[in-house]
Prior knowledge:
Helix 1 packs across helix 3. The protein is globular and about 45 Å long. The chain is mainly beta. A hairpin with a 6-residue loop joins strand 25 (about 315) and strand 26. The protein has a single domain (about 1-360), classed as YVTN repeat-like/Quinoprotein amine dehydrogenase (Methylamine Dehydrogenase, Chain H, 7 Propeller). It starts with a helix and ends with a strand. It has five helices and 29 strands. The chain has helices at about 1-15, 30-35, 45-55, 75-80, 240-245, and strands spanning about 65-70, 70-75, 85-90, 95-100, 105, 115, 130, 135-140, 145, 155, 170-175, 175-180, 185-190, 195-200, 205-215, 215-220, 225-230, 235-240, 260-265, 270-275, 280, 290, 295-300, 305-310, 315, 325, 340-345, 350-355, 360.
Amino acid sequence: MANKKFLLAALAIALALAVIGCSKDSKSGGSGVEKAADSNTSDDTGDIANDIIGDIMGEDTEDITGDATWTAVDVSSIFGNEQIRAIAYGNGRFVAGSQRGKMATSTDGITWTAVENSVFTPSDWVSAIGYGNNMFVAGGYSKMATSTDGITWTVIDVNGIFSPYNLIASIVYGNNRFVAGSATKLAYSLDGTTWTAVDVGGIGCFINAITYGGGKFVAVGVEGKIAISTDGITWTVEDAGEMIGTETRDIVSYGEVYEMNAIAYGGGKFVAVGDGNTIASTDGITWTAVSGIPFNAIGFGNNKFVLCGYNGRTLTSTDGATWTDIDADNVFADSNGPIYTIAYGNGKFVAGDHEGKMAYLAD
């Protein structure tokens, strides 16, 4: 019964969103600044999704809510109300970064310590953090830095590769190399310090997220474009535009097409989330829509996916197809803004949102 109600809610949202118009000019070729600055306009997405679900579920909403709950973590003394844009886990600790270049570390995801010598300035941002080969790599506006412990960082010169006007949106490790992406730019590195740009013409106007799994990298962004590579160098571009809702609407005011905001791999499956449908694939090429609710971040750990959306909305799934609502209990900001990032480590998921709120979801 619960699954049937959830599917009805997802269908109603997809139908409702299909009638809302949009304009494309302000998003095409947009920079990371535009994406971040416009994030509050996406609040309507959360409003509409929650309103429709409430109308359909009525008093029985709790029927689809799982037993797991989020626990708030107080990081206000470190991040204030800044957007927490990136969290990664590696070498026995979490590392988090914010829109104003602040960073912090934690071994348990609960007690956090500010990085005193963060090499990122308030104008740099920390928008992506990846871990691999015993190294953290963080990125922002055309700046990258590396660290073996998440505490002491060394700046890398990548000005000739990434534009100073576009955020480095994602950094991942796989196949013995790092791959990083920003607006139409992808680059790879075998050691995390020396980077080489690669050509991915046709990916669209913004690469929002990259993951590695099943022997391949998969990158997602706007316009329904999905890029696939086994080595991070040669990429094939697929078009999932119709599947993610390209023909319907974009109520975030800066595009005619949906963005895919995040992607994760686990249990032999890729799952990507965005402004339209959540889609799943076993090979990164053929995709199936599994939810019509907008989400902004996704993580995988301990054999389950966790989706994070607006106003603290989160769902979990063990197979990427059937989803259970998780009660955030107002631990995240209540202004309908997005949860930007989530990572798994040390037996828990840790997520951060648009107003500096952080919380963890234990196994």
